[in-house]
Amino acid sequence: MKTDIILSGVGGQGILSIAAVLGAAALENNYHLKQAETHGMSQRGGAVVSHLRISDKPISSDLIPMGKADIILSVEPMESLRYLSFLKPNGYLVTNTTPFINIKNYPEIQSVLNEIKKQPNTIAIDADTIAKNIGNGKASNMVMIGAATPFIDIPFEKIENGIKQIFERKGADIVELNLKAFHTGRDFALENR
Amino acid sequence: MSKKLLLGDEAIAQAAIDAGISGVYAYPGTPSTEITEYIQDNKTAIERGIHSKWTANEKTSMEAALGMSYAGKRALVCMKHVGLNVASDAFINSAITGVNGGLVVVVADDPSMHSSQNEQDSRFYGKFSMIPILEPSSQQEAYDMVRYGFELSELLEYPVMLRITTRLAHSRAGIEAKAPSEENKLSLPTDMRQFVLLPAIARKRYKMLIEAQDKMMSISEQSTYNTYHEGDDFSLGIICCGISINYLLENYPENNCPYTYIKLSQYPAPQEMIKKLEKQCDEILVLEEGYPLLEEQLTDYFGKGKKIKGRLDGSLPRDGELSPDLVAIALGIKTPQEKKTPELVTARPPALCAGCGHQDLYAAMNEVLEAHGDGHVFSDIGCYTLGALPPYQTINTCVDMGASITMAKGAADAGLFPAIAVIGDSTFTHSGMTGLLDAVNDETNIVVIISDNDSVSMTGGQESSASGKLEPICAGLGVDPAHIRTIIPHRKNHEEMKKIIADEIEYKGVSVIIPSRDCIQKVMRDKRKNRTVVKTDCKK
User: What is the rounded distance in angstroms from the CA atom of residue A56 to the CA atom of residue A54?
Assistant: First the structure.
C-alpha cells in the first residue's frame, strides 16, 4: 500500500488540518508516514503545499518525485493546477471549486475550472457551500478529505477516527459537524468519480 | 513505546528534553523556530523548569548556553543558518574554550531560500571551528543524534553542531522516543581558567583543539551513523550527506541500488571510508544539501585524480535544495513525462495580512515620499519586508537583522536626504539598538521608524523582547524625547501619521517614529485562546 498526496492551497486555509487527520489515521493503521510542510514566509497568504506520503513500507524521501503523486488534494481551484507536474498520468485531482482571491490578476474562474476538467480523473466540489449548508463554513476542509477518501488506501473508518481524534477537544457537536461534512464529501466523490 | 508524529524540529526538541537539558536558548528563525516552541509547551520541560524563554538574538543565546555548560549542565542552542552569523563570535570561541556540560548547537539551513536571504551552508562554520558536525538523514535519526550529540559533547569536552535543512525540520514522521535522562547537577569546570581566553591560555586551548582532531576523526570512522554499503557496480561510488540518502534510495524503491555508497551523517568526514570508496570505484558522485563542501574537498585542484561529480561539475545544480528528481538526473535515470502547469496559473506571493498596521504605515509613507522620489527607505527582516512588493513598493533594502538603521546612517553620511529606516520591534532589539546609538553619537540626519506590532510575526507570533520597552530604550540611547513620536497606524490616523513623518524628515538629527498596533494574527490568536478559556471555565 502506498498513497502519495500533494496537498495545496493558500496560506491560512488550513491544509495542515487535512494532513493532521490523515496522519493520525495512518499512524493508527501502523503505516509509515512522511509529511513535508510549508512554514515561514509563504504562510502569509502565499501559495502553500504539503507532500503527504503514506505507505506500509518505510518511506525514503520527504518529497514526492515529479509525476508520482497519486492524488492532488487542493482546497483552492487555481492552486490545484500549480503542482500538476507532480501528478502521475492516471492520478486523481480532487479540488474545491471556491476560489480564494487575494491577488489582482486571478484568472477568470470558469477558465480555471475548464482546465481542471481537462484532467482525466477529477473531483471538483464546492466544499465551501456544502460546509455552509451543513452549518459551518470552517468544515470545508473535512468535505475535501471526504471527497478524496475513495482514492486513499486507508480504511474509511480509520480516517473517521482521525477526525474524532483531532476535534475531540472541541466538543461532541464539533466532531459531529465535521463527520457530517466528511461524509457529504465522500458521497459526492463516490457519485461523481 | 508507541510512535509520535513529530516534525523534525519537534523530534530534536523531544530528544533534548529526554537528554536532560536544563535550558534551550534561541531567537525565532525559520526553519528552526518549532524546536524551542515545542520545549516551551512540553509538560515535562515545564515541570522540570527547563529554561526556554526567547532571547534577544542568537549571540545572546549562544553565550547563555555556554554559561549553562560552564555550570555543568546540558544546554541546547537553536537558530537558523543566518542566525549563526550573529552568534559566530561566541560559537567559534566556544570551540576554543571547550565545554563542561554538554552543548549542542542546532543550526537549520534553508537551501532554496524558502524563507531566507541566502542559502549558506552551516557545515562550513562547523569545519571552521573544528568541532564535530552531525547531519541526520531522518526525523528519527535527528532524535537519536541529539541524544548522542550530548554524550559526544561531554566525552570530547567540545560543543557539537547538529546541522539540519528545511525538509527535515518541517517534515513529520513517526518518532520513537527512548527513556529520558536526568538533568546534570551543577558543577564547575575542573580547570577554573578553561574559559579565560587570554592569549596565553587561548594558545594552549587551541593546540588542544588541534590535537583533538584525530580523536574526532576516529570517532567519525567508527560512528554507526556513517555506513558503507557495497554494491556490485563499481563504475560509480556515491557519498550521501544527510538527507540526500533518501533521494538516492527513492530512486531504488526495491532497495536495489547497484552502486557502492556511503551514508554520511557525522563529520569530520570519515577519511578511511572515503579512501576505500575511491579505491573501489571509477568515479565518485557527492550528494550534499547546500554548498559543495565535501565535493570541493575531494576534487583535485589539478584534475589528476578520479572524476568527482556533484554540484561543481554540473551533474547537480550549483544552487537550491536537492530532490529525488535531481538525483535521478545525476544518476542518468529516466524520469516520467511530467504534466505541465497550465499557463493561466499566476504567482501568488505572500502579502501583508488584511488589518496589518504595516500597511497603514506604508500607505502614509508613500504619500509623504512622493515629493522625494524612490530610493530613500532602508528596511529590515520581518513581515514588513513584504513592503518591497506591490502594492506598496515602499522599501529599497533588506540585508540582515538591524541593517536598516545602519545603512540609512551610511547613506545619510554620504549625503542622501531623506534617509529613512523601517525596522520591526523585535528586529530592533535583536540588532538595531547599537546602530541607533551610532547615529545618536554622530548626530546623523535620519528618521528611524520602528513599526511595532508587539510580536515576532513572520515566524508565527512569538513574544517580542522589545515589548513595552521601545520608548525608554530610544530615550536611553540618547534620542531627544521630543523626537520620539508614537502613533497608532490606522486609516483614521492617516493624515496625522503623514504629518509626523513629514515633520521628522525636516528635523535635522535622529528622529524615531513608533507606529504601534498589535499584529492582527496575534489579536486573532488571543481571541481564540480567550474563547477556549471561557469554554473550559463553563465546564467547571
Answer: 7
Q: Where are the beta strands (DSSP E) in A22-132?
A: 32-36, 47-55, 69-74, 87-96, 122-125
Which among A40, A60, A103 has CB closest to B458? A40
* Percentages (nearest 5) of helix, strand, coil residues in chain A: 50, 20, 30
Q: Do A39 and B170 touch (CB under 8 A)?
A: yes
**Nearest 5 degrees, angle CA A119-CA A125-CA A127?**
145
Cα–Cα distance measured from residue A45 to residue B47, given in angstroms and rounded to the nearest whole number: 37
The mean pLDDT value of chain B amounts to 96
Domains of chain A plus CATH, in order, are: 2-100+107-191 (3.40.920.10)
Beta bridge mates, A40:
none
ipTM above threshold 0.95: no
8 Å CB contact of B336 and A66: yes
CB contact under 8 A, A46 and B167: no
Q: Say how far apart CA B321 and CA A141 lie, in whole Å.
A: 30
Indicate yes or no: pTM above 0.90: yes
- Is-contact B30 B80, C-beta < 8 A? yes
Per-residue pLDDT, averaged over B255-266, amounts to 96
Name the closest residue on chain A to residue B347, using Cα atoms. Answer: A47
pLDDT tens string A96-143: 999 999 999 999 999 999 999 999 999 999 999 999 999 988 899 999
Q: At what angle do helices A140-148 and A15-28 cross, to 10 degrees?
A: 50
Residues of chain B in contact with residue A24, where contact means CB-CB under 8 angstroms, are 5
Write the DSSP assignment of B161-201 as a string of letters. Answer: EEEEEHHHHTEEEEE---PPPPPPPP---SSTTTT---HHH
B323–A65 C-beta distance less than 8 A? yes
Residue A173's H or E segment, with its range, is: helix A172-192
Q: Please report, as a single letter, which amino acid is at residue A22.
A: L
Instruction: Say whether B324 and A65 touch across the interface (CB within 8 A).
Output: yes
Domains of chain B listed by start with CATH number: 2-186+196-211 (3.40.50.970), 227-331 (3.40.50.920), 357-524 (3.40.50.970)
Question: CB–CB of A65/B41 below 8 Å?
Answer: no
Residue in chain B closest to A107 (alpha carbons) equals B344
**Which uninterrupted H or E stretch holds B140?**
helix B139-156
Q: How far apart are CA A65 and CA B336, in angstroms?
A: 10
Laid out side by side, the sheet with B283-287 consists of: B227-229, B259-264, B233-241, B283-287, B308-309
Residue A82, chain B, CB below 8 Å: the answer is yes
